[in-house]
Amino acid sequence: MQVMLAEEQTLEIQQMIGELIKSEIKNARKSVGADSPFLNKRQTCDYLGISNNTLDLWISMGLPYIKIGKSIRFNKDSVNQWMTRLEISA
């Protein structure tokens, strides 16, 4: 079975899908902290592709963080610099 739509309907559907995709990308970027220089622990784990236990280990190894009360944040630039210092050339 084939459904035929008027050109206006096709354009409207395309526009709706485009807006939905933009909205989902914006939500995903916000979720992972892509637009913020600071990340919480979950976002940092996602950013680095590691578990919370590994993040805690890396903190004990010197990964820089910011603590305000009970809140912990990570500066992406500082995390990147720390990782770069650990880089080993082959």
Automatic annotation (TrEMBL):
- Which part of the chain is the Helix-turn-helix domain? 40-85
Database matches in InterPro entries = DNA-bd_dom_put_sf, HTH_17, SinI_DNA-bd, WH-like_DNA-bd_sf
Top-rank taxon of the source lineage equals: Bacteria
Q: Which GO terms describe its molecular function?
A: DNA binding
| Name used for this protein in its record | DNA binding domain-containing protein, excisionase family
Source organism: Streptococcus henryi
